[in-house]
Amino acid sequence: MCGRYATTRSEADLSDLFDAVDVTEGLGPSWNVAPTDPVPLVRISASQADARVLDTARWGLLPPWAKDTRGAAKMINARSETVATSPAFAPSFARRRCLVPADGWFEWVRTGKERQAFYMTPADGSVLAFGGIWAPWGPEKMRTVSVLTTAARGDLARVHDRMPFILPPDRWAEWLGDEGGELLRPITERELAAIDVRPVGPAVGNVRNNGPQLLDPPPKATLF
């Protein structure tokens, strides 16, 4: 799964990187994004002449039939294997795909009685784009979003059996467009190898903690 991640670039930087119009209204950076937090996403907007917009959504997709927001934390991820057929996710996958910008994501590995946190991030510091789907919910059409996940591979599989569904830049337009195609093909081995696995300290485990210090390596840590 992907239950915690970092997205720290400014709206101006994200707008430039994704060639999108910024309509986020001051969403700040976070080194510890948690379920139900507001997050940036890139989507196609009919009101902007079908241009890309950098927008904000609540993390945890709510289908139209949800009576309240209590189930949102359980809907932060959509499995790529079933997203096209799931009653909760299929309508959004067909019509409301989006990109979720990230610097990297966190997972934990249990070693005895302890849990070691790891941060997965591009070695060159480039932006990640998670494949996402969004849906409006409630009378006010609150925007909600889920991040797709897929089977982890390589060193990432040693941390967790799932990983975010990552889209390289040359596939952004295809994902956001109306064309079908092979949308759910995995990233290449070369793209996978460009992602580092870095141990970080335990502070990221508390959702109240935030700041760049969460990415610092602990005094003593091993990769696995």
TrEMBL record:
Keywords: Covalent protein-DNA linkage, DNA damage, DNA-binding, Hydrolase, Lyase, Protease
Enzyme Commission (EC) number: 3.4.-.-
Top-tier EC class: hydrolase
Protein family according to the UniProt entry: Belongs to the SOS response-associated peptidase family.
Name used for this protein in its record: Abasic site processing protein
Taxonomic source organism: Paractinoplanes durhamensis
